[in-house]
Amino acid sequence: MTARLRDRQDRDESGITLVEVTLTMLILSIVLVMAFDFLDRTTNITVKTETHARTEDDTQRVLRTVTQHIRGALPITGTCTTAGYATTYDNCIRFTVPRGVSGIGSCARSEFVIGLVGTGTEKKLMYDRRDFTGSTSCTAGPLSSQVLLLDRVVNTSLQPLFTYYASDGSQINTTSSAASVPNAATVNVNVRVRYRMGSNPIVMTSSAALRNNITR
Q: How far apart are CA 19 and CA 108, in angstroms?
């Protein structure tokens, strides 16, 4: 009996079985998949947050620039005839800003066209500018190329970029007559920007009180 037990002990081999190795690899794979999934979701959230914040900053900066120009409008008039822009006041504005110290009506002025360009769901907010100089004979400088202010703008015809209000606070209907726009005392600028594909738009609004629109 003793010899038989000794023989079994001599034949005993220590080590890891194939089943144990397979189970270990399976568990390790599950842990790695969970870790990579967590890392991927964390990275996506970080990128999404950074993109959202950057788009908000860009939109605020553009709104500040646009409203600063519009406040000096003298006056808001005419249709947007610059090539590439819409010809409706739903999505476009054209105005003149006096420059220099010569006073209102002088040659020193800048003419702006700001509006949405594009035919798809997402459009570009762009502007053209032309500067005029001279004391008695107005000389037009070169027309700037369309300058991009914002992209991925998703305003629709029911969400106009510019809304006009008279001095009594009533909204001016610009769909019937562009000539009524010089009567505006305030212009609201409403921008809807999509910061990434499929995201809900960021909506920002700014109001510009017209200090030079003397025809109101």
A: 87
Please state, in angstroms and rounded to a whole number, the distance separating the CA atoms of residues 216 and 199: 40
Pairing state between β 92-98 and 162-165: unpaired
| pLDDT per position as a tens digit, 112-167 | 888 888 878 888 898 888 887 776 677 777 666 678 899 899 998 888 888 888 88
Burial of 190 (0-12, 13-18, 19+ CB in 10 A): middle
- Own/partner long-range contacts of 29-36 (Cβ < 8 Å, ≥24 apart): none
Q: Residue 184's Cα: distance from chain center in Å?
A: 26
